[in-house]
Amino acid sequence: MRANNNNKARRSRQPVSVVTGAAGFLGSHLTDLLLARGHRVIGIDNFITGNVQNIAHLGGNPAFKFIQQDVTEFLFLNEPVDFVWHFASPASPFDYLNFPIQTLKVGSLGTHKALGLAKEKKARFLLASTSEIYGDPLAHPQPEEYWGNVNPIGPRGCYDEAKRFAEALTMAYHREHKVATRIVRIFNTYGPRMRLNDGRVVPAFVSQALKNKPVTVFGEGKQTRSFCYVSDLIEGIYRLMMSRYDLPMNIGNPAEMTVRQFAEEIIHATKSRSRIVFKPLPQDDPKQRRPDITKARTILKWEPKVPLARGLTDTIAYFRTKV
Ligand code: UDP
Question: Domain with 161 in it: what CATH number?
């Protein structure tokens, strides 16, 4: 009876979402989408890699509340919550090399706190997981059933293992506490609000090209990635949260290319005079990566829509204002 009353109360008011990592690249785009779809949003961030500029436009919006807090600490909210979107984490190889312990803590302790909040509020929970849980994959493209090939003690281990732990904890809360959970495995994503100096390939190449400086391709540039535009990704994640699917799901763009081809695309799109230079390949850099998105296509009726050229135009326009 109480559950029925709770459900009725929920339906009769505006949905409330908590977004951890709300000042980050993905967290801030997700916050915008939730506000546009009528949610009230409580954003949490400690600005370790997030940027206040990403949420500055929400100042004065009565549907948005911001709490500056480290999500590894106890989360107390004196109000109802319907959805918890756990996006807080350093997310670029450069960032998690700089903050290995914080990365491990937010993936483990932070996920524990965010799940605890969801359990307490009887909210639905979504974990932002990653293609990194597949490590340097031996299966290609990567389906969700693939268990991965991760070096736990290498430089990427702090991120990969934290996210693997986060997935395990999410499933444990689902099975033991019956929390309604979702797990999205996010593949390489790009768009406005990426941090210029986060070391990832898109900000690195675009800023180098805009300055007509050498474009630094690691290794021989034969490693592959596939790049999803941020609006496509966020739409897929929203659909996953609203679906009934509680096992991990890949969201990403299956259009695969080598890093060298990508460098050429960027030089072309920026009309740059840059040339390509080759630098050593970082340890454990995955040789190939491409999502199998069969599940997203069939269950969510989702697939990416924004072609690379269009996504790059918007991204480059954003970076022009920053370099
Ligand atoms: N990369 C590169 N030059 C750079 C930055 C990255 O060649 O200045 C390569 C990197 O070695 C990797 C790919 O681009 O193979 C994507 O790197 P990113 O850091 O964006 O993320 P990852 O997919 O490795 O998590």
Answer: 3.40.50.720
**Is residue 267 a part of any domain in this protein?**
no
CA of 104 to the centre of ligand 1 (A): 21
Examine the residue annotation and report whether 159 is marked as an active-site residue of this protein: yes
* 170 Cα to the center of ligand 1, angstroms: 28
Q: State whether residue 278 is helix, strand or coil.
A: strand
Whether 122 is covered by a domain: the verdict is yes
Is residue 315 situated within a structural domain? no
| 156 inside domain | yes
- Count of H-run helices and E-run strands, the chain: 11, 13
User: For 168-202, what is each residue's pLDDT tens digit?
Assistant: 999 999 999 999 999 999 999 999 999 999 999 99
Closest CA to 24 of 3, 45, 5, 1: 45
Q: Which residues line ligand 1 (CB under 6 A)?
A: 92-93, 188, 199-201, 204, 216-218, 223, 225, 259, 282, 285
pLDDT tens-digit series, residues 86-98: 999 999 999 999 9
Which residues form the domain of 180?
A: 2-191+230-254+290-305
